[in-house]
Write a structure and sequence with these properties.
The protein contains 8 helices and 14 strands. It has 261 residues and is α+β, with helices and mostly antiparallel strands. It starts with a strand and ends with a strand.
Length: 261
C-alpha cells in the first residue's frame, strides 16, 4: 500500500485492499463487501476510513467506518472523495454510522435514504428437525408466484426471483409457499441471505427461524461464513439473527448526498 497527504488536512489517501483491511482491523464488512478493484483508492482520518462499495449497481458508493472524530472529518471531506468516486455526478450515495447521520444532514443537502444493519457469522446454529422442511425452490419456473408472495408478505424485500440467487422455501401441505429466502453472494464471495419472508398468517410458528437457521448452517458449512442485512426498523428480525449467533457489526444510514466541489 502507498499513501500520501491529501489536500484536506488530516485525511490520508490510501491504495490497496490489504492496507484497507489493516486500517479497519480486518473488519468483517470490509472483508466481505470490498474487492481489490473497489479498494483501489480509499481515505483515512485517525482510526476511521472511507471506502468504496458496490453491491448490484455499477455505480460506486462510499461507506465511512470507524471512530467518531475521524469519521466526522471524513464526512467533511466528502467533496474531495466525490471528485474521485463520482466526478460527473451531482449526488452520490454515502453510508455513515447511524448516529453520525445528523452531521451528514448538517453539512450537506441530502435526499431520502434508508437505515440498515449488516450481520455476519462463522458459527453454525444447532441442528433441528425442522430444517428438513427447507427445500430448494425453482425461482425461474415459479418467479411469478415468488414475486407475488414477496409483494404480499415482505414488500421491502430487495431480491427478486430469477436474478441468479439460490432460492429456498418451506411449503404448506397444499404446495403453496409458507416461507422463502434467497442465497446470493457478497462482492467478495461470502454467502448472503436476503428476501427472507414468511406468510403473515403463519407468523409466530418459527418458520423464519427454520429458514434462516437451515440456510446459515448450509452456508457456514460450505463457505465458513454467512452474511445478511436488514432494515433497522425490524426488531423481530434483529432478535432472531442475534439468537442464531450472528453479530450485528455495522448499522448504516445511507443517503444520497449533494456535494459542492
Amino acid at each position: 500500500m502507498s499513501s500520501h497527504r491529501s489536500a484536506t488536512a488530516d485525511v490520508v489517501t490510501g491504495h490497496g485492499l490489504s492496507g484497507l483491511l489493516a486500517a479497519t482491523g480486518d473488519h468483517p464488512f470490509v472483508r466481505w463487501e470490498v474487492t481489490p478493484d473497489l479498494a483501489d483508492t480509499w481515505w483515512r482520518a485517525d482510526d476511521a476510513v472511507a471506502f468504496q462499495r458496490s453491491r448490484k449497481a455499477i455505480r460506486r458508493t462510499v461507506n465511512i467506518l470507524g471512530g467518531d472524530d475521524g469519521a466526522t472529518r471524513l464526512i467533511d471531506a466528502l467533496p474531495l472523495i466525490a471528485a474521485t468516486v463520482a466526478p460527473e455526478r451531482k449526488a452520490f450515495p454515502v453510508s455513515v454510522p447511524q448516529h453520525l447521520e445528523p452531521r451528514l444532514r448538517e453539512r450537506y443537502r441530502i435526499m431520502e435514504g434508508g437505515d440498515w444493519e449488516w450481520f455476519h457469522t462463522t458459527v453454525t446454529p444447532p441442528a433441528d428437525a425442522s430444517h428438513d422442511l427447507v427445500r430448494p425452490l425453482d425461482d425461474v419456473a415459479r418467479a411469478e408466484e415468488v414475486s407475488a408472495f414477496l409483494a404480499a408478505h415482505s414488500p421491502t424485500a430487495d431480491t427478486e426471483p430469477g436474478t441468479g440467487e439460490r432460492w429456498f422455501a418451506v411449503e404448506s401441505p397444499d404446495g403453496s409457499l409458507a416461507a422463502v429466502a434467497a442465497w446470493g453472494t457478497t462482492r467478495a464471495g461470502a454467502p448472503h441471505l436476503s428476501s427472507v419472508a414468511v406468510d403473515t398468517t403463519l407468523r409466530g410458528r418459527g418458520l423464519g427461524r427454520t429458514v434462516v437457521a437451515a440456510l446459515t448452517r448450509m452456508a457456514v458449512t460450505e463457505a465458513g461464513v454467512c452474511t445478511l442485512g436488514m432494515y433497522s426498523h425490524n426488531d423481530v428480525a434483529r432478535g432472531l439473527y442475534l439468537s442464531l449467533g450472528y453479530a450485528d457489526v455495522a448499522a448504516w444510514a445511507s443517503r444520497p448526498v449533494l456535494v459542492t466541489r
